[in-house]
Design a protein that fits this description.
Structural class: alpha/beta
Order of helices and strands: HEHEHEHEHEEHHEHHHHE
Distance between the termini: 31 Å
Radius of gyration: 19 Å
Helix content: 25-40%
Strand content: 15-25%
Largest sheet: 8 strands, mixed
């Protein structure tokens, strides 16, 4: 997982992102059915928003750990200083699991992670490590973005050709879409005008990243040994009327986070993601121009956010 600079601008973006995701999940940050957990772990905790929320939601828990490559902001660290149950650990989870006694096998009631797709390079191994980390009866939850674009059936124009495939599938054990939202969708990954997306995904794959991880986590959980695996796909719309059409005004925050890439997340990530493809400066800028056009508002267009939970058998 790569380090992120926790500048005030980045902190503001992460807070906006957190609020949008909570709204998307019907005012929930996590969804696993926890009952009186003792130890909870937030992996890739960022600014610590979910970590501190877990501490508030579970006052009887003895230990709440937040883990990230870089320190949490000073304000979050100050909050932790007032709650002896709350502790932040700096480091890579993959090495910490082998060295930190606080993260011993079978010690956690709940292991949570969100949006590791731009840093995790070995998902099956990571998910298997979650299985080792939680106690029998404990839960793991992974929330991941799927970096594809979809159109609701019938929403795209008559002149638009869209590549086939339903975007389904999973890891070796199969994905699972039992919680999918209503309505048919068409994956536009292979649409000829989306050259920027093909380059973006190719560059990510070259770095060992899997931008389809969201739809595969359920399969990896089953392969690792988790039971009661549940996968739910949430649609993140790219048009401002979606909130009213769906009777969900809270989706406005999701739309504002995405349409036009207002915080420059894709814009700034694109050059670094495709840096190994040997693109010239003009070609790079043309692809980025196409990207910004595709990130604009368009009715029927959406991306997906996956929430997957699994229980370690007793």
């Amino acid at each position: 997982m790569k380090e992120r600079l926790k500048t005030p601008i980045e902190q503001s973006r992460l807070k906006k992102q957190h609020n949008a995701i909570v709204s998307l999940l019907h005012n929930r940050a996590t969804t696993a059915p926890l009952q009186h957990p003792t130890t909870l772990i937030d992996i890739g905790c960022g600014t610590g928003l979910v970590t501190t929320l877990l501490a508030t939601q579970h006052p009887s828990a003895a230990h709440i750990y937040g883990i990230d490559l870089v320190p949490v902001p000073a304000s979050t660290a100050a909050l932790a200083a007032t709650d002896p149950r709350l502790e932040f650990i700096q480091g890579d989870i993959r090495s910490l699991l082998a060295s930190d006694p606080r993260l011993r096998p079978g010690s956690a009631d709940f292991a949570f992670s969100r949006l590791l797709l731009y840093g995790m390079t070995d998902w099956p191994v990571y998910v298997a490590s979650l299985f080792e980390l939680v106690r029998p009866g404990g839960w793991a939850e992974c929330q991941e973005f799927c970096d594809r674009f979809f159109y609701e059936a019938g929403a795209y124009g008559a002149g638009r050709e869209v590549g086939g495939g339903d975007g389904g599938g999973g890891g070796g054990g199969g994905g699972g879409r039992e919680g999918r939202e209503e309505g048919e969708a068409v994956d536009v990954l292979d649409w000829e005008d989306w050259a920027w997306l093909r380059a973006y995904r190719e560059g990510a794959a070259q770095k060992g990243l899997d931008l389809d991880c969201g739809m595969k986590v359920a399969g990896w959980m089953k392969d690792a040994g988790f039971v009661d695996v549940s996968a739910r796909e949430y649609r993140m719309p790219y048009w401002r009327g979606a909130a009213e059409e769906r009777g969900r005004p809270e989706l406005k925050g999701v739309v504002e986070l995405l349409v036009g890439d207002p915080d420059g997340m894709f814009y700034h990530a694109f050059p670094k993601t495709v840096e190994g493809l040997g693109l010239g400066r003009e070609e790079m800028e043309e692809l980025r121009r196409q990207m910004m056009q595709c990130l604009g508002e368009e009715k029927g267009k959406f991306q997906t956010y996956w929430v997957v939970t699994g229980r370690k058998p007793e």
